[in-house]
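A quick aside before the break. I want you to see a complete sequence-to-structure record at least once, exactly as it would be stored in a machine-readable document. Don't worry about memorizing anything.
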Amino acid sequence: MTTAEQSAALASASQTPRKDHWPAVGAVALGTFLLVTAEQLPIGLLTSVGAALSVSEGTAGLMVTVPSLVAAVAAPVVPVLVGALDRRLLLLGLMALMTLANVASAMAPNFTVLVSSRVLVGVAIGGFWAIASGLAVRLVSTENVPRATAIVFGGVGAANVFGVPLGTLIGELTGWRVAFASMSGLALIALIALLAVLPSLAAPQAIGLRLLAEQFRNPGVRIGIIATVLIVFGHFAAYTFVSPTLQELSGIDERLVGPLLFGFGTAGMIGNFVAGAALARGVHRSVLITAVSLAVAMPLFLLLGRTTVGGVLLLIVWGLAYGGVSVGLQTWMIKAAPQAVEAASSLWVAVFNLSIGLGALAGGLIVDTFTLQGVLWLGGACALAAALAVWSARTDENLR
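That is the input. The structure line, written in tokens, reads:
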């Protein structure tokens, strides 16, 4: 297929609208903000939930682990189960499920019910991300897809910078049940926004197991999946332990870790939009630069991060680089599979969420068994391997 034919196929398959639906893009970004906030909120509530429901903090950590693993399964399964259902109705239904799930969390009489409600949160996260991550091609014209994708994924950075800290603060001041109830209220607002501005989105094609399996025959999709697994796995193996890294290696006071993580999230938001602009000029080069930057930033902590100034500067560089990961790799998947964006995106969301959980698990094993420095070497090595995989696709015309 020629480049011109591929462009025509992309326009046809994605049903590019005559008018850009920027309010809908904003509503979807609000949805992604909610998803990430809801997924990570329990991190700041482990102690209070554990004390209230008589479980250890380790057991309370299941509130984070369970939805991540469920989301990894739901991402490809939900689109298969709903077939050709209008994607507008699907997104509305999943946001309604998120609303009810957080109500159940807020009212849970025991930890079993609470974890069960988090299963529903995972279904909503996986299903919503599977559709929303590649939705830019359905809402805006082709030349505006990178910008719209950056806005959608801007909700991720905003959740890390504002959503999770604010939700944790609400939990500390008023109780963990109120924090979950707040998530329900935010989900209801997102539901109303989507209902108001999201246009009808007929399924471009019904997704079946065969179509999902066929994506692995596409070299661009395969490399995108490999790069995603390596980068996300390595990042979370190291970033999960960024607090002790800053304290033990860089000598930073524990009281400054919170503000510095806020700075990391802010840098990530900036990196997201910088990458979105760069992707419009070249997908392959942008993703390669992101991977190489991560491959350098994490191990460099061991050399230049042993001072306060060095640690802070490298943390900001790390945040800027990681900020481009989601928007870069999702745009890669869109370009690699223009006629099967939804199927490729479903697989991408699944491996992304699975890599988060496995990366954090591997990092914990390395820290407990070997040394803290080991996770930085692992993160850098994984990013370097991802960069080599990305580099191998340099002749793919779709990814230029």
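Two observations worth writing down. The two ends are 16 Å apart (CA to CA). Confidence is low (pLDDT under 50) at residues 1-17. We'll return to this after the break.
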